[in-house]
Amino acid sequence: MYMSPESPSTQPGPLASISQGAIASLLLLLAACGQNKVSEYQIPKEKAEAKPAADPHGEVRSPAVKWTLPEGWEEKPAGRMRAASFAVPGPDGQNAEVAIIPMPGLAARNADVVNMWREQLRLEPLGEEAVALQAEKVAIGETEGRLFDMVSKEPILDQKHPVRIIVARMDREGAAWFFKMSGRDEVVTQGKAVFVQFLKSIRFEAGSEAVHLAANHPPVSTNLKESPHPASDKPAWQVPPGWQEQPPTQMLLAKFLAKGQDGTKAEVTVSSFPGEVGGLLANVNRWRSQVSLAPVDQAELSKGLMPLDVSGVKAMLVDVTGKDPDSGQKSRLVGAIVPQGERTWFFKMKGDEPAVEQEKKGFIEFVQSVRFPNG
């Protein structure tokens, strides 16, 4: 957590559940047969231009993470910002997706992270207290982590099946580590026990190179009223005339109010997250859900998209109209998804349809005026 906000993943997938006794038998069988596969991932070193910090307290060492691969799991290419990805076969050809996602410098509260994934499932956000009550203690290697289990209330996958996401979190040496399983509700539910055993197999080893996570990935704190992004991360842009800057909240870098005619209005927000935050399809469907539209599949994805050049980067513009989930009034959302370096940026305008129509040209010019730091 484009975190499908890793993970909008992404396209959800399943896992299979067996009893604790069956797990023990399975582990004994694997040990006897010598079929356990141990894998290792090393976080890539910082680029050469990242100079060593003089203060040793600013250094953290890049850890290598190892795991024991359960029988039947298939390792997949890790992709951007993922330490590892796995496909886990379930019944009827359904596969779960499991991902290991390190996020250097992420100091967000559990509620903010969990709510990113709850939004993918079209669930209402929860406060920190409510999230804490739902957290389960879980062993991640030798560390005690927290596990969050959430399921959609409506069919999302192929518009036929509820989707479940299980995420375990631990913090280690300046980085938050997320272990995520997602897929069809019943398949993920069945696979939870195996997933928990997989978490117990996680091992970290100190890396050989010191990297400066604090310097290169400043902590993202959401326990602030102002923007959680450091000022140095803020791009330069040209704000259209008439837009009123508002105090940003939670995970937002910036927020504006754009007023249309006859009292109509739209809200413009800017945010960014490490990695792909779930990918294009998941983020488009996340935005569609905000105007009460059904999700689309990969084949239908291109219908509502338009390519957009932003600082030489190929971005995608989304334009969807539906109804506001709360008021039931006609609502329109125009958004730009911009991959830049190892982050994805989200520019979104949502509100009354007349105001969005009036301000769409200015919104596109605003997005295209963006100049990223270190761009």
Number of discrete helical segments: 7
Q: What is the class of the largest domain in the CATH system?
A: Mainly Beta
The total domain count is 2
Strand order of the largest sheet: 4-5-6-10-9-8-7
Beta-strand portion reads: 25-35%
Distance between the termini: 22 Å
Overall 3D form:
globular
Give the H and E element order.
HEEEEEEHHEEEEHEEHEEEHEEEEH
Query: What's the CATH architecture name of the largest domain?
Result: Sandwich
Low-confidence stretches: 1-62, 208-232
Going by helix content, strand content and strand pairing, the class is alpha+beta
How many beta-strand runs?
19
How can the largest sheet be summarized? 7 strands, antiparallel
CATH topology of the largest domain: Jelly Rolls
Radius of gyration: 21 Å
Q: Please estimate the helix content.
A: 10-25%
**Average pLDDT across residues?**
75
Q: Quick gist of this model?
A:
The protein has 375 residues and is of the alpha+beta class.
How does this model look, in words?
The chain has 7 helices and 19 strands. The chain is α+β, with helices and mostly antiparallel strands. The protein has 2 domains: 197 residues, Jelly Rolls, CATH 2.60.120.1690; 138 residues, Protein Transport Mog1p, Chain A (3-Layer(aba) Sandwich). The strands form 4 sheets. Strands 4-5-6-10-9-8-7 form a 7-stranded antiparallel sheet, with helices on both faces. Strand 5 and strand 6 form a beta hairpin. Helix 2 crosses helix 3. The chain is globular and about 60 Å long. The N terminus is likely disordered.
